[in-house]
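To whoever is covering the structure queue this week,

Two jobs came back overnight. Logging them here so there's a record in the thread.

Job A:
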Amino acid sequence: MGQVTEDAPTAATTGRMATTQRYVLWIAVLGSFVAFLDGTIVNVALPAISEDLGGGLTTQQWVVDAYLITLGALILVAGSVSDAYGRVLVLRIGLIGFGIASIAIAASQTSEFLIVARAVQGAAGAFLVPSSLALITSNFTGAAQSRAIGIWTAMTTSAMIVGPLIGGLLVDLVSWRLAFLINVLPIGVTLILLARGGFHDVRHPGASIDWLGATLCTLGLGGMVYALIEQPNSGWAAPNIWIPLVVGAVLFVAFVLRQRYVRSPILPLDLFRVRNFWTGNVATAFIYGALALNGLVVVVYLQEGAGLPATLAGLASVPMTIIMIFLSSRAGAWSGRWGPRFFMTVGPITMGIGALLLLTTTAEFSYWWQVLPSMIVMGVGLALTVAPLTSAILGAIEPERSGIASAVNNAVARVAGLVTVAMLAAIVGGSLDLDGFHRAAIVTAALMIAGGITSFLGIRNPPRDAVDQPPT
């Protein structure tokens, strides 16, 4: 295979992938697959985890948010490391760490140990998605890049089928612990492909990483999230709530201020001077905050409220995933041809309409009439959104900074999910009953529609002469 030159993209504009590009695409897909796979498994396993280890809704929130705290904070460091020391090195670190953490989760005997293991897994996951996407943006350009991102989106979202199916079966028939071990197979395959591919990273001498900034970011997010999750149990006036909230906010502000002056910032604020980048990230915050909230609420309510087994609850969203798989690549190609603005507007608003369809759910539960229509509509909207959103944000930044640009966008998405999950108790009114389920659907719809409006007002399509024509 030879060397992958990250500073000079190798993508041709003919629309046909070279052998090297196909190889890169498969590595990127598999490298991200494990992170997406885990995201679907954990939601399915949450009721079984809380039943086994105790803690109720609070434990469920922490199992999700412990992962998102470290992922959201360290994904920025991973982007800097990816640009400075190479995509392949970062990808290897992430894969190995993710595998070890998955084994630790499966062996957990207490909720506290599991939450710590999830935090470690989030730290490892921070090294996966940015380096995977950076491999694509460094080796594809123009319409070929949009098509490759569309394929990456479709293939990685297939984890949303594999995860609930296998994970749900293991939860129902064996144990939730084994559901976390299925990550090991794609991790092993990706490591083998990396070893056989003959890749050599391009490293930048003199590069440095802002570890102090990463610490400020992690502690800041952690303090605020702790307060949001525990507030329903103690109240805002309790010192164990307002002190972490204030300290966390101060540390996070200090992190942002530090990024203005540090020599090698992990959050380069100058990126936000690019219109499509900052607008796309605002839209990302709305959209992915809504997706995280909806994904958790639906699968948990279907088990605890509607009484479905874990397998069926996990498979409830499969129609949405199937639609994504079939349409994402095409939506990416359309976005490369006509620009992302239309798709980033219509897609989220369509998902908002799909979320509102969940209001038809009643105590006399029927998946086919009350949930399936929502999944279909949301699937269409999601397919129209994801690839154009990614292309618009990464396409606005020069290729040599694609690693950090991807990391920032992923951090925004994860932190948005972190906040909505942390506010779950406040959103649903303390318990995830039918009324709480309806309230979550309304909040999801509002966030989605806000994402669509943001895209319409802020996103600008690239000039027609700058868009490569698709293959005929």
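Job B:
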Amino acid sequence: MTHSVVIIGSGFGGIGMAIRLGMAGIRDVVILEKDRELGGTWRDNTYPGAACDVPSHLYSFSFEPKTDWTRRFPPQPEILDYLRHCARKYGVLDQIRFGTEVTEARFDEDAALWRISTTAGELDARVLVSACGQLNRPALPEIAGRGSFTGPSFHSARWDHGVDLRGRRVALIGTGASAIQIVPEIAREVAELHLFQRTPPYVIEKPDRPYPPWKQSVLRNVPGVYGLSRARVYAQLESRALGFFKYPKLMGLMEDRFRRDLRDAVGDPALRRALQPDYRMGCKRILVSNDYYPALTRPNVHLVTDPIERITPSGVRTSGGEHPADVLVYATGFSTTDFLAPMKIVGRDGRELTEAWRDGARAHLGITVSGFPNLFLLYGPYTNLGHNSIIYMLESQFRYVTGCVDVLRRRDLAWIDVRPHVEDAFVREMRARMRTTVWEAGCDSWYRRADDTVVNNWPGFTFAYRRATRRPDPRHFRARPATSG
């Protein structure tokens, strides 16, 4: 069966895109979801303490405000409930095909259709939208003996809630955004926690607080208050952008504040030295927490900085010796630079996307890829942020993609395909601008590829991205009329 639009993924990108298409009168939309429930990363990450590090008023769609968040920084269950609510309210739930994983999508140029193969059968689409995101494929480290551990072991994004950690020895590998939320939660109940750190992160204060019922009532009933709160949060976060992409030396001021706070939080000089990063703040993701450093000072928590040599049947061996464990948890992040993997995507002339991206993922505005007509990416290359809400970026992309679909419909076009020189010019601009950013300040991070290029992040203000994606420029595309050929 042929559909107007097929969307892959039912996280914020997929749900929001379907809603915006519906608002534009485009209702023949199907969402393909490999899991049995919607939610994307907020469905998958249910580890203890899972929460967002962006304030709740900005981590929601502008067209569907939520005034009853319980906290300034929303916990995972509330975010997932919000997505479910949006899907129900706007009729998107009926458009989702659960348990349907895409294995291949191939563009049929003669028919001007995407032929999509899934684990549940075949279907066709005039337009294909990938809403898979950048944080959906857990990455496990290449450590010798990883399969030899005899106790329970799992990735933080696949948390095994059937494993009782009370009174047990836990080895947690990784000190990223998930780990700093997990550590304070489980440290209170485990017998021992060995936390294996390769590189210390910058962890700053999290200005979190509950929203009491009276404040929720004001946000809900007093006109303009919610909008002002959202605008204030946006302005605060956006002001940090200069330190990321324009004047990285500004991060020095935040580093001074970090060192003072670290000194106040951690009294042990040796532990404090182990927690002091030796790279420019912002080069890796800046983390927010009020209870991570206090948790590390507990007598049952041990920070291990010796390099890991191998996993053994009974624990983790480092250059400093053996660390016995009953449970092993990998908080080791995600495969972030492959984007659409492991799907096979084939465009015009039989060219595979992996071949087009052999030198790194590339897409005009992070959305359209030359040689792959009527294919649009959400949260694609060059659209991740270090300072603001990705929901804002997604909404910019929703408008752009909806505009492209509208052009196809109004002008009776079979397909549109971004011109190679347009894509090339955008990528050259991104790489030139990236050289002055803090992300290329010399540290290893999930933003960087093996060749040291950064293809994930947007090196600019989010309002500049919104302006750039205001509407598709017909001059940027090759097109074929629907009546030709």
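Note for Job B: The radius of gyration is 23 Å.

Please reply-all if you pick these up so we don't duplicate work.
Q.
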